[in-house]
UniProtKB/TrEMBL annotation:
Family, as annotated: Belongs to the ATPase A chain family.
UniProt protein name: ATP synthase subunit a
Top-rank lineage group of the source organism: Bacteria
Entry membrane topology: Multi-pass membrane protein
Length: 307
């Protein structure tokens, strides 16, 4: 596949998602056809995907993320159903090892009572890991298979959901929404507003604090918004960079610069290192989520004590 395209075209093709959206009437498509009315359709080029605007849906990202989420639920539910009081073996042992590791970490990081946090941390870690793991599949295998099934050699198909900024920021915004929800639930509206306006500068004198409120709110708002943004961008950036390296190695293999053995060694070497990256990024996303939940549960007196 790499040999049939220019390097630039090959990279652009692999970085474009399978977008489904609405194109306006009179729009000239990539194949030269003109739409007579507004149409919901699959993009045939990166320009069409861009012209679909905000409401375009990345079908490949949604499909793979949902499928991998269901796979996680099936495997862990199956392990739980077959759990015994004896010494576990095989996959059951692995599931128990992961579960105990996450549970211990949550107990150390989250010193509050909330029965949702540990299952959420386990779900995030395994789900993100599975999505990251798709990056180890050779870059051409699944896209080529999808293109043949669709009967279109230029069919866009990305298989790593975490290389789509929409997916990583979507998960980060979900964490952010939970953080806001638990902050208000634990501290009340007044406590939440006080946290945003009376920290980090607080004199205890109202006639001084009233002038500090704008500065406190600006600092706290920036700090609050930075949490989901950094959480999503960190995961996206690391996996996107990893995918780019696999694509570049595939280009080298396609033009035969190093030959089959050299390219295979490069792929294998990077894949071994990338296993550490995908595991670490899943772990970091899970730990930061747990820390943010702990921060949301911290009451004002605890915050002041920490200061």
């Amino acid at each position: 596949m790499a040999a049939e395209q220019t390097a630039t075209g090959y990279i652009q093709h692999h970085l474009q998602n399978l977008a489904y959206g609405k194109l306006p009437a009179g729009y000239t498509r990539a194949d030269g056809t003109v739409l007579t009315e507004s149409t919901w359709t699959i993009a045939h080029s990166s320009q069409e995907a861009a012209d679909m605007g905000f409401w375009a849906v990345h079908l490949d990202t949604l499909g793979w993320s949902i499928a991998l989420g269901l796979l996680f639920c099936f495997l862990f539910a199956r392990a739980a159903k077959k759990a015994t009081v004896g010494v576990p073996s095989g996959f059951q042992s692995f599931v128990e090892l992961v579960t105990e590791f996450i549970d211990k970490l949550v107990r150390e990081t989250f010193p509050h009572t909330n029965r949702m946090v540990a299952p959420m941390a386990l779900t995030i870690f395994v789900w993100v890991f599975l999505m990251n793991l798709m990056d180890l599949i050779p870059v051409d295998w699944l896209p080529m298979a999808a293109a043949k099934m669709a009967g279109n050699d230029h069919f866009f198909f990305k298989v790593v959901p975490t290389t789509d900024l929409n997916a990583t920021l979507g998960m980060a915004l979900a964490v952010f929404a939970l953080m806001i929800f638990f902050s208000i639930k634990e501290k009340g509206i007044i406590g939440f507003v006080k946290e945003l306006t009376l920290h980090p500068f607080h004199s205890g004198k109202w006639y001084v604090d009233i002038f500090l409120i704008p500065f406190n709110f600006l600092l706290e708002a920036v700090s609050l918004i930075a949490k989901p943004v950094s959480l999503g961008l960190r995961l996206f950036g690391n996996l996107y960079a990893g995918e780019m390296i696999f694509i570049l190695i595939a280009i080298v293999f396609g033009v035969g610069a190093l030959g089959f053995i050299g390219a295979a060694l490069l792929q294998m070497g990077w894949a071994i290192f990338h296993i550490l990256v995908i595991t670490l990024q899943a772990f970091v996303f899970m730990v930061l989520t747990t820390v943010y939940m702990a921060m949301a549960h911290n009451r004002e007196e605890e915050h002041e004590h920490d200061q």
